[in-house]
Structure formats: C-alpha cells, structure tokens
C-alpha cells in the first residue's frame, strides 16, 4: 500500500479493508440489455451492483450500489461539443448526493486509448486535484483481456483484474483483487467505466 500504512478512501473509508480482498465480478444475464454486473466477496455475498444504461435508461450514466441496494456512486460520461470533438473519453464519479452543476466529482477518468492505443495509458485523478500531481492512478495492461492493474503514481498496485476464462470459458466472470487500504467502491467504479468503454455489460 502506498505510504506503507493507513486507509485511502475515495468514496468512503467504509469500503476500505485492512486485508487483501478478492472480489468476483459476474455479468448479468445477456437478456438484460446493458444491465451491468454484480460483485460478490469470497463468501458469495453481493457487495456491489453496477447498473448500466439498460436499467437506468440513459447512456453515459453508471450507478454503483452497495450490497443492500443503496446507491453510493454515480458516474457520468462528460458530454458537450468539445468532448464530442475530443480524442478521448472523460468520465466523472460523484457521491450519492450528486447534483449536476453544483458538486465537484470525487474522481475523473481519462481514456485516450481510442487515439493512442500504444502510448497513452488510461489515467484517473482524485479530486480535488493536486497542482503537483495531475493524476493519481493509471491502468496498466488490458481490461478487455482481463489482465490489468490499477496502479498509483508511485507504481504500487492498488487492484488487479484477473481473468477466469481458463476455468469458466467466459469473460463474463472474473476476479478483482484489491490491496489492503484501497477503496473497493472506487475500484469497482473504475471497473464499471472500463466495462462501458469496452462495450461490455453496462453499454447498450
């Protein structure tokens, strides 16, 4: 863990564990168009649910809920003329009491891979931004291949996506290993965006 000790909440310290945590992501049935995915722990208990446009009814919007069904994180794709002409994807994550135009995001993700597939990694900034650190995390590897890591600026691995295709024969089930101290809700929020960008379970 970066710094060696302590919690690193983004959404809430409630979702930070002092122990290594392995989560399993399972895509909802294909009959639910853009339905999203379910996240369970080692005891097969549902800890997060991600709703995509098929359930929300709007593209470019993702909703992360906890295991009890309460909404905890809303993620929106940045729109507008400038964004439409831009070469990258920009997404902002907001807390439950999100009010567009009145609240700053708690994190933003910028993906330039559509234009620079070999030289521009996906990067995530925690808000408020630091003047000396324009970004805080980056994605290394390939989410589409279920072989990637979310790493800090210092190179510490916060979480890893590990495919289970050799066991299940499908990309619809994979694991996310979150290192001690890191915010699991934040990690799942990032996974939700990557899922959408890659046209998977949350997209319509």
Task: Provide tags for this entry.
4 helices; 13% helix; Porin; 35% strand; twelve-stranded antiparallel beta barrel; 12 strands; 204 residues; mainly beta
3D structure, described in words:
The protein is mainly beta. The protein has one domain: Beta Barrel (Porin), CATH 2.40.160. The chain contains four helices and twelve strands. A twelve-stranded antiparallel β-barrel has the order 1-2-3-4-5-6-7-8-9-10-11-12. The protein is globular. The chain starts with 20 loop residues before the first strand and ends in a 7-residue tail after the last helix. About 2% of the residues have low confidence. InterPro entries: LOR (IPR007612), LOR_sf (IPR038595), Tubby-like_C (IPR025659). This is Protein LURP-one-related 6. Belongs to the LOR family. Pfam families: LOR (PF04525).
């Amino acid at each position: 863990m970066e710094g060696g000790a302590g919690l690193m909440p983004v959404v809430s310290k409630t979702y930070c564990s002092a122990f290594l945590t392995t989560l399993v992501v399972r895509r909802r049935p294909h009959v639910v168009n853009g339905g999203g995915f379910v996240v369970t722990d080692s005891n097969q208990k549902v800890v997060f649910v991600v709703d995509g446009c098929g359930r929300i009814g709007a593209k470019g919007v993702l909703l992360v809920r906890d295991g009890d069904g309460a909404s905890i994180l809303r993620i929106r794709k940045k729109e507008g003329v400038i964004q439409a002409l831009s070469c990258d994807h920009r997404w902002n994550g907001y807390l439950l009491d999100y009010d567009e135009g009145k609240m700053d995001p708690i994190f933003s993700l910028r993906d330039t891979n559509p234009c620079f597939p070999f030289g521009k990694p996906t990067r995530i900034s925690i808000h408020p931004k630091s003047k000396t650190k324009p970004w805080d995390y980056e994605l290394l590897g390939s989410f589409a291949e279920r072989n990637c890591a979310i790493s800090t600026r210092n190179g510490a691995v916060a979480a890893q996506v590990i495919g289970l295709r050799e066991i299940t024969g499908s990309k619809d089930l994979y694991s996310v290993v979150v290192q001690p101290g890191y915010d699991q809700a934040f990690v799942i929020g990032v996974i939700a965006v990557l899922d959408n960008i890659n046209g998977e379970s949350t997209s319509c």
